[in-house]
TrEMBL record:
Belongs to the class-V pyridoxal-phosphate-dependent aminotransferase family. Its EC number is 2.6.1.44, 2.6.1.45, 2.6.1.51. This is Alanine-glyoxylate transaminase / serine-glyoxylate transaminase / serine-pyruvate transaminase. It is an enzyme of class 2 (transferase). Keywords: Aminotransferase, Pyridoxal phosphate, Transferase. Coiled coil: none annotated. Residues 33-337 form the Aminotransferase class V domain. It comes from Methylocaldum szegediense. Its cofactor is pyridoxal 5'-phosphate. GO terms for molecular function: alanine-glyoxylate transaminase activity; L-serine-glyoxylate transaminase activity; L-serine-pyruvate transaminase activity.
């Protein structure tokens, strides 16, 4: 048997992640590898922290990329802040709230679940009721941008509620960082995690996290060991601390960090508010085309994420067949529904480098062609024109 080099096909990634990777990021990752304690690499680490401060809109000293995907960023937050016996309110309005629940349980915590319908944001009134019913609560955890549904919850309001009851907050920002307004310091977020592969346009495998002083003090006062050695921040922070003296913890994924550094430089060059605006503009164009076609969103407009568009599968369309044809014929990937929404929705991502007029128009034209061919119940021949009208109005 002779196995040759792997050469992946060229795809347009418009699912729930990963997103298309910017060519500058791929180029950055191909640069020469140096040691993870090399003085020049340490300089880059300091720059990375400054760039993450900008992306998160925070000055938290404990801000760093975990050397693993967003799921490890999630576990970093829970493993360090939850001790056995702690009560944690977990808000679930989709798949990823459920993963928070699992993390709390594995840390030995007691979960108080606040549930909302999938496709709806977290209801602050339900959280307030749970806080009153459970005054012993230590942490409130929720997803800012629920990737499984495209619903956006109100971080500022939920964080304020938690703090009024003396609780910390843990926020999942995997799909929101770089794509939607996110202001960690202004909104008083205690611990937050994200991923490199979505609105930052980088490859999967890194998880930016940030902890404020309240969270750091909670970690320092722990009475039990963090159950994960690798994710124990009391150890990791000695490697990602300031200055030139770093304590060895693990061999950092050097070239992957080159890529995240370049992604954050690109975000800085574009400007954070401009990036938020671009995602919103591309969503408006996609929305115009989808609705002209006769498709509809499952999330109310006020809570709808621009970068993750969850649409109901129209009558007459076969979920798997449509997605398979889009991939084979057009090299276009869109996402399936998860959990309770499997087989009922498609998830169309407009994240980072993928959030472009070219991708919006490709998606609409390809989807319209496949749905027309399969005799689904849509309005043919109108989607692209509707999207182009919006793009022109917004200067594209």
């Amino acid at each position: 048997m002779s196995i040759r080099s792997f050469h992946p096909p060229v795809r347009t990634l418009m699912g729930p992640g990963p997103s298309d990777v910017h060519p500058r990021i791929l180029e950055a990752m191909a640069r020469p590898t140096i040691g993870h304690l090399d003085p020049r690499f340490i300089d880059m680490m300091d720059e990375m922290k400054a760039l993450l401060h900008y992306a998160f809109q925070t000055q938290n000293e404990l801000t760093l990329p975990v050397s693993a995907p967003g799921s490890a960023g999630m576990e970093t937050c829970f493993a360090n802040l939850v001790e056995p016996g702690d009560t944690v309110i977990v808000c679930q309005n989709g798949v990823f709230g459920g993963r928070m629940k699992e993390n709390v349980e594995r840390c030995g915590g007691k979960v108080v679940l606040v549930e909302d319908e999938w496709g709806m944001p977290v209801d602050p009134n339900k959280v307030a009721e749970a806080l009153k019913a459970h005054p012993e609560t230590k942490i409130v955890a929720f997803v800012h941008a629920e990737t499984s549904t495209g619903a956006c919850s109100d971080v500022e309001t939920l964080a304020r509620l938690a703090h009024e009851h003396g609780c910390l907050v843990i926020v999942d920002a995997v799909t929101s960082l770089g794509g939607s307004p996110l202001k960690v310091d202004e909104w008083n977020v205690d611990a937050i995690y994200s991923g490199s592969q979505k609105c930052l346009s980088c490859t999967p495998g890194l998880s930016p996290v940030s902890f404020n002083q309240r969270a750091v003090e909670t970690i320092q006062k722990r009475t039990s060991k963090v159950q994960s050695w690798f994710l124990d921040l009391s150890l990791v922070m000695n490697y990602w601390g300031g200055g030139t003296k770093r304590a060895y913890h693990h061999t950092a994924p050097i070239n992957a960090l080159y890529g995240l550094h370049e992604a954050l430089v690109l975000l800085q060059e574009e400007g954070l508010e401009n990036a938020w605006r671009r995602h919103q503009n591309m969503h408006a164009a996609l929305k115009a085309g989808l609705e002209a076609m006769g498709l509809h969103f499952i999330v109310p407009a006020a809570a709808r994420l621009p970068q993750l568009n969850a649409i109901a599968i129209p009558e007459g369309a076969d979920d798997i067949q449509v997605r398979s044809t889009l991939l084979k014929r057009y090299g276009l990937e869109i996402g399936a529904g998860l959990g309770a929404l499997a087989g009922r929705i498609w998830r169309i991502g407009l994240m980072g480098y993928s959030a472009s007029p070219k991708n919006v128009l490709l998606c609409l034209s390809a989807l319209e062609a496949v749905l027309t061919e399969s005799k689904a119940s849509i309005n043919p021949g109108v989607a692209v024109d509707a999207a182009q009208t919006v793009l022109a109005e917004r200067g594209y």
